[in-house]
Every structure is written in structure tokens, then in C-alpha cells.
Amino acid sequence: MLDLIGEDEDLVNNIWMSDEAHFHVSGFVNKQNFRYWSQANTRALHEKPLHSQKVTVWCAMSTLGIIRPYFFENEAGNAVTVNADRYMEMLQNFFTPQLSRFSVNENMLFQQD
After folding, report:
1. In a designed cystine with 28, which of 6, 19, 24, 84 is the match (CB 3.0 to 4.6 A)?
2. Distance between the two ends of the chain, CA-based, in angstroms?
3. Average pLDDT over residues 28-49
């Protein structure tokens, strides 16, 4: 990366990074590596739903700006699972047209996650 930036100082302005997050409709918060510690009840049980209803939201950003969130939903507005086909459809029909709002050159880099 340092060599690429050395060749084109404007490259850092054309790196787009994106990620998605799952939001549970029930209000449940998924925290990786989350632990409960208690002196009062060391066997405390915290139940969480196995398959609670959730929505997946995607967003991208660079030094040029932020591309507004994209919600993975079907035609009826219901949340759907993200798969390769749905992700490619989002990139082609949402992300790429959104890039026209920014000064993106042919050296643009896209980083998922």
C-alpha cells in the first residue's frame, strides 16, 4: 500500500471501505466475546433468541464521503439474508451509481469488511 500511495498520493482519497451489520428487531444486541461476571450468582444464565428477526444494513465510506446505508430487503420490504447474488445486485444497482456523486478516478480501490 505504501508503494502504491507513493506512486499516487491521491490514492488514499479513492479507497472505499464498507461493512454490514445485523440489527435485531427485538432490541437484542449481539456482542462478540461478551462475558458476564458476577460475584452474587456465578451460574447466572442470560438467554438470547436463537433466530430473532433482524435486518442487515450495509454502508461504505472514504475520505470523499459516506454512501448512505443500504437495507437488504425483498420487494415487500422484509429483511432477507445476504448472499452472493444479493450482494452483487447491491454493488451493481446501488453502490456503483452512488459513486457518481464523488470524484472517483480509475484507480479506485474497494475494501469489503
Report:
1. 24
2. 17
3. 63
